[in-house]
Design goal:
alpha+beta; 12% strand; two-stranded antiparallel ribbon
Length: 130
């Protein structure tokens, strides 16, 4: 395996940080709460070759889940079977098709209903968005 890296300076600094890292308490840069960094955490950071976090676990969770709409609900027409309005996390102007729960879990539809032909002469990601 080739040990060459495209970021040798970053890797050198990261290795220094991780080699000197000891269990300690740290203050979150976002909420100012104090959180612990344990030996197991340090081993995990070394394994993944990532720097220690600057945010507490709760703030990191908020950042991870920030993209997901778990609160706002909309009425949107069910696109496949009945066409009646159902509660959805997608707004009515969203391009995504929604299914009622019974239809979603039924055997009345399959991947061929929404599948696309793949053109091997074009790059994958060029076709992926479509």
């Amino acid at each position: 395996m080739d040990n060459q890296t495209k970021t040798p300076n970053f890797n050198k600094v990261l290795d220094e940080i991780l080699s000197q890292l000891k269990p300690h308490q740290k203050t979150c840069q976002q909420c100012q709460n104090v959180f612990d960094i344990f030996t197991e955490d340090i081993e995990f950071y070394k394994k993944l070759q990532v720097p220690p976090p600057k945010l507490c676990p709760e703030c990191r969770k908020q950042r991870r889940f920030g993209f997901y709409n778990n609160i706002l609900k909309f009425y949107k027409k069910e696109d496949v079977r009945t066409g009646e309005k159902i509660i959805s996390t997608f707004s009515s102007d969203s391009p995504y098709k929604i299914f009622d729960l019974h239809h979603w879990w039924s055997d009345k539809w399959g991947g061929e209903d929404y599948g696309k032909d793949y053109d091997f002469n074009k790059p994958f990601f060029e076709q992926f968005q479509n």
